Amino acid sequence: METITMSQAAQFVDQKVTINAWVTNKRSSGKIAFLQLRDGSAYFQGVVLKSDVSEEVFDTAKSLHQESSVRLVGTVQADNRSTLGFELLVEDIELLGASEDYPITPKEHGTDFLMDHRHLWLRSSKQHAIMQVRNEIIRATYEFMNNNGFIKVDPPILTGSSPEGTTELFHTKYFDEDAFLSQSGQLYLEAAAMAFGKVFSFGPTFRAEKSKTRRHLIEFWMMEPEMAFVEHAESLEVQEKYVAYVVRNVIDNCEIALKTLGRDVELLEKYTKTPYPRIEYTDAITLLNENGFDDIQWGDDFGSPHETFIASQYEQPIFILHYPKDIKPFYMKENPNDPRTVLCADMIAPEGYGEIIGGSERIADYEKIMTNIEKYGLDPEAYAWYSDLSKYGPVPHSGFGIGLERAVAWLTGIEHIRETAPFPRLLNRLYP
Predict the structure, then answer these.
(1) pLDDT tens digits, 221-268
(2) Which of 36, 162, 338, 398 could link 235 by a cystine bridge, Cβ 3.0 to 4.6 Å?
(3) Nearest-angstrom CA–CA distance, 105 and 116
(4) Looking at the domain that runs over 2-97, which CATH code has it been given?
(5) Nearest in space to 281 (alpha carbons), one of 305, 255, 310, 253
(6) Which residues contact 138 (CB under 8 A, 6 or more apart)?
(7) In this structure, are residues 408 and 130 in contact, taking their beta carbons and an 8 Å threshold?
(8) Does the model's pTM come out above 0.90?
(9) CATH 3.30.930.10 region(s) of the chain?
């Protein structure tokens, strides 16, 4: 008799198996007990018929409390009423671990309570579904990058400088030197791209930004590719193909999770169609001004309401191109068609989820890099290694970064980014 996971049930219909699980809920009468079960791979129902089991087994079934752990022996049966399509006709139950007074009950709980019990809240069906989508985005990302000739490079988390200046950084001591938690691995990836051609990283980054919005975390995961011999227009094509690929895989491989979350799959299907629309920053400002947004003018960065309105004009993610150079980092290449702007783009997600990708073509000219380092008030010695990249065989190169948690929020359709990380770090939350 084989021990299986619930997700393997389709391969064992009408066969006797063993399943290890937790009880999420139960209901029983004098003759039958229904056990709602989970094992980490899926959710499942166990049916215990009093007439088919010993009195001891039936009494055990009736006495189980929420989140008790059990080992079940039974026969897998097809069941069209089940989300998974199967259930288990139970013959034997072994109680592995009792659970008394589980704090998260089927009633409504406040957000603070649930966040204080995040270590338990992860067990719920909705949180389980969100983490499944997160995992699929990660899996599909590695697959896309591997299939397109990228090599993974891991930049350091402790750095001596910042790619975007020294604001919003977590400071620490590195023996007798100052160090910071990384807010991006980009500069290191540019160096790696000069060695390997196409590289990407996927790891944690940190922003000491005192923001409480639903779009911000203090610690989050970034996927950042860098590509040598790639100019801005080609980079945009890579970005949209990557996003469409990820959405396609989430639709194809997370059917039950998306159903649990009530996500509109037909809407997600629209996001798999490329190319995505593009709009110039200047035209986006005009669009906003013509529609009652008098709080923004050329040279300003977009806020959440602005991005939401611009995205609402389209049915797909949209690229906003060529932002003013004064609001962008020092490493972005000047736009030859408008020297006030740089060759960059932000990809704005539909449905009010805001920016999910930021990217640009990087400067490959030593004199311009040095001029910008001085202009932005950065320490030339701290960036000496980076400026070397534009001295020794510089080439056109581009890259971008996508925040994993924002992508998860968008594709799952959840309102707040705090539910997209297993243990989110927020402005006022370091527990659990």
Answers:
(1) 999 999 999 999 999 999 999 999 999 999 999 999 999 999 999 999
(2) 398
(3) 14
(4) 2.40.50.140
(5) 310
(6) 202, 404
(7) yes
(8) yes
(9) 118-420
**Integer angstrom CA distances of residue 217 from 109, 128, 205:** 22, 20, 10
Give the CATH fold of the 118-420 domain: BirA Bifunctional Protein; domain 2 (3.30.930)
How distant is the alpha carbon of residue 171 from its chain centre? 26
CATH 2.40.50.140 in the chain, residues?
2-97
Place of tokens 């009423």: 81
H, E, C per residue of 313-349: CCCCCEEEECCEHHHCCCCECECCCCCCEECEEEEEE
3 state SS of 224: strand
Distances (CA, A) of 154 to 135, 354, 407: 19, 27, 21
Q: What CA–CA distance (Å, rounded) separates 226 from 338?
A: 24
Q: How many CA atoms within 13 Å lie on the side-chain side of 418?
A: 19
CA angle at 97 for the pair 432 and 40, rounded to the nearest 5°: 60
Structure tokens at 323: 């932002």
Mean predicted confidence (pLDDT) in 344-364: 98
227-237 burial string, b = 16+ CB within 10 Å, else e?
Answer: bbebebeebbe
